[in-house]
Amino acid sequence: MIRLLYKMFLLSLLIVISACEKEPTLTPYLEETKPISSRKEKAQAKLETIMLYLGAAELNAEIADENHERRAGMMHRTKMHANEAMLFVFPYPHQTGFWMKNTTIPLSIAYIDQNSRILEIHNLEPGDTNTVDSKSDKIMYALEVNKGWFAKNGIKPGNVIGTKKGALAKSVQAR
Hints:
Elements: H1 2-20, E1 49-54, E2 57-64, H2 67-72, E3 84-94, E4 97-98, E5 107-112, E6 118-124, E7 132-133, E8 139-146, H3 149-152, H4 168-172
Parallel strand pairs: 2-3
Antiparallel strand pairs: 1-2, 3-8, 4-7, 5-6, 5-8
């Protein structure tokens, strides 16, 4: 009798243990992974512009001063005219970096301090997802133009950007 009770106890224990096991999760085989979103990414609408003066050269620059405008930047744009640009305005001086994800136009970028002085100029290649970081932690603005525009117009680090009102800060923060 004890032996029978012992066997029943083991059988009950085995049933309880197997009932507590988690069933294996089956993952269905998919031949093709489809994108989560089928909507096509689009370039942001043209932004408000400002005329910039760099020596004898002039640029009509779109002002990207909101987070969503700075994030979108030149992504998905297919052209930029010869004397057009995009000016990125930051809320405070800091070290920054730009990349060219979803950007098809070859660009050059100038990192600019709060005194409107160009500190650095870098060339950017279309589609490059490597970030081009500023060396300085005093960047208040970034200016993107067609690749080679700065060199073609003799613009170098040390040059100051002007507006009709003077320094960048007077024009972009007084809008």
